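Notebook p. 47: complex prediction with iron/sulfur cluster.
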Amino acid sequence: MKPVTVPFFISHQGCPHACLFCDQRTISGSAGDLPSSGQIIERVVAWKQTAAGRPLDAAFFGGSFTALPWHAQKRLLAPLQPFLADGTIRSVRISTRPDYVTVDQLVRLKRMGVFTVELGVQSMDDEVLKRSGRGHTADASEKAIRHVKDQELSVVAQLMPGLPGDTPAASRESLMRVIRAGADAVRIYPAVVLAGTGLARLFQEGSYRPLSLGQGIDLCKVLLHQANRERIKVLRIGLQAETGLNHSTVLAGCWHPALGHLVRSALWGDLLDHLTAGVPDGAPLVIRCHPSIRSDVAGHGSGTIKRLRSRLDCRIVPDSALDLQTLALDFMDQRITGNLLTDLNYSLKEV
Ligand code: SF4
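Predicted complex, structure tokens below:
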């Protein structure tokens, strides 16, 4: 059964940095409080009641967990111990910076139930990291990933394509480097320009141009395809449309509340264009896909199907016998199949 994530947003107070793109100080306030033991317990109990028997994972998002003093980390994890012991909580996830990960920390965190460490890698290009004010190198990220793997914990790398100095080729190389280092999964958050950040200043001065929504979708499509080929999970594409992110706080960049859906739709749209190229105009066409990917295959607002209908008499039929990477197209007594991993190839020149 898929676990339900119980989220805890910790304040920025553990992080001594000021990355160019980060507005955590604005969102959480420099005096933001960590959740109390009582609040943590209350939240777990409440989420358990609505989880309908599904297991729970606790996740600490925001800020840099391991940059907090150890007594504060322990205070956050202690209330979860009884829930871990009785099986209410399956595992705990934390997010942090690569240069705040030590073997000692990991050993202690593992003892307190932490199983997944999310690392804000952002880029594996030192020039991009430097220009973004990250304060660490790509080597530090590689080392952190290896430390986490050595403790037999799961590691998720967060990547941020489109920062100053980044290119599509460098973004793809960043993805490949975290995969080679041992990342189990990635999150892809294309850079957005948030009001009040250093990035906003560069954008307003005209010295930084972020990825547009279209450019970001094209690049994320290539990254998603590459990750799929490498059998690496992409847990999320695009920042969550949570409080604080809206059209007045996001000044520019690749942001959309349904970015992941747009990217997956673009990928399936490309496969459908490739597969239908030889289907005669006006032919009745049945597109079969696994039910769980139907909306991505249809496209955002059914855009892909509407586009194909200008040429073909097509409809989508869910078919649970198909795997999650395959489409089967039936037309005029013929069937053709297409696989997302093997039938699509991308060149970065297209991005
Ligand atoms: S390390 Fe993370 S929390 Fe700290 S300033 Fe950078 S992005 Fe923000």
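Notes: The two ends are 38 Å apart (CA to CA). Residues 277-350 form a domain with the Glutaredoxin fold (CATH 3.40.30.60).
Next step: compare against the earlier run before touching the bench.
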